[in-house]
Amino acid sequence: MCLHQNPSHFEENKEEITHSNLVWNDYRETIRGMVFFDPHVHMTSRTTDDYQAMADAGIVALIEPAFWLGQPRTGVATFKDYFASLVGWERFRSSQFGIKHYCTIGLNSREANNEALAEQVMEILPLYVYKEGVVGVGEIGFDDQTPAEEKYYRAQLELAKEAGLPVQVHTPHRDKKQGTERSMAIALEHGLDPGMVIIDHNNEETVHSVLDQGFWAAFTIYPFTKMGNERMVEVVREYGPERIMVNSAADWGISDPLAVPKTAALMKMKGISDEAIRLVTYQNALDAFAQSGQITESDFEAVKNIDQSLKFNGNTILRGGQQPRIDKDSIFIR
Ligand SMILES: [Zn+2]
């Protein structure tokens, strides 16, 4: 996307072409033994194969933010069931693959625009945000940057403050820079400590200001639309690893639940230090969301002692083993 033709950037492009057919399976060995925390992934939309592949790649914990399901919900009851599944069935399903599952709970920005429904959702949110394993209010923020989105963003910032929880902020695809600035300004206006706010879906245009103002900067490695992982390597090279975290935001769209380990492998190949990789693919997310008081690192080990014959309300999963279809052969995510 970048049109600057400075020599160093030009060389970087040449290097990308040389490496364009790197195969993930050939490079996964380079990160063997490393552990990863994906702080934004919508597992409800993913398969057991994905869980297995994530566990095999070293993902030990994840956060599933409440989000938009792809079509508008018609009543508050479906929000209740969805939130209940995030703290119930999905957590159980994850545990069956040895991955510790946490979630954030919130009214997503798109559905904030249905005000009649949004009011009802706001009423039930306090029933879920205090539950065990809920590590934040999220993902909330702006989509189209409408007055209704702002109203419910503000209301949920207050809820997060009251609950003492971190906030996971979704920034808009359109007018991203302005939307990101607005999200941060409103959070500060409500008296939130920027250290309790994770600004998500950053890019090269937003990262400087986010870090400069003391917020956490999350980056989504998502094919075709958000960030590619080669660009991510350059961001870490330029800004260092402090307060930066990488996630997949894998969901029902064309996305990659292995985005975090693949990016770690690419960073390793490109000479980023092991310590910097550990910070941006594990420790920073842990530190940010552990402020909820809901994350204990030793639980990551405990959940590994899985017994797949366990049941949740009488139901069991007993599947898995295959690799995901999308991008399974490439270390690159574009
Ligand atoms: Zn999301």
Could you characterize what this model shows?
This protein is α/β, with parallel strands linked by helices. The protein has one domain: TIM Barrel (Alpha-Beta Barrel), CATH 3.20.20.140. It contains 13 helices and 8 strands. Strands 1-2-3-4-5-6-7-8 form an 8-stranded parallel sheet, sandwiched between helices. Helix 4 runs parallel beside helix 6 and helix 6 runs parallel beside helix 7. The longest helix is centred in the middle third of the chain and has 17 residues. The radius of gyration is 19 Å and the shape is globular. The site of zinc ion has 6 residues, from loops. The site of zinc ion (ZN) has 6 residues, from loops.
Give the helices and strands, then pairings.
Elements: H1 7-18, H2 24-27, E1 36-38, H3 48-56, E2 59-65, H4 76-87, H5 89-95, E3 100-105, H6 115-129, E4 134-141, H7 147-163, E5 167-170, H8 176-189, E6 197-199, H9 207-212, E7 216-220, H10 229-239, E8 244-247, H11 259-269, H12 274-290, H13 298-302
This protein binds zinc ion.
Zinc ion (ZN) binds at residues 40, 42, 65, 67, 139, 249.
GO molecular function: hydrolase activity, acting on ester bonds
InterPro entries: Metal_Hydrolase (IPR032466), TatD-like (IPR001130), UCP005295 (IPR012022)
Pfam families: TatD_DNase
> Structural class, from secondary structure content?
alpha/beta
Average pLDDT level: 89
Unreliable sequence segments: 1-19, 319-327
Tell me the number of structural domains.
Answer: 1
Strand order of the largest sheet: 1-2-3-4-5-6-7-8
Helix content: 40-55%
Shape field: globular
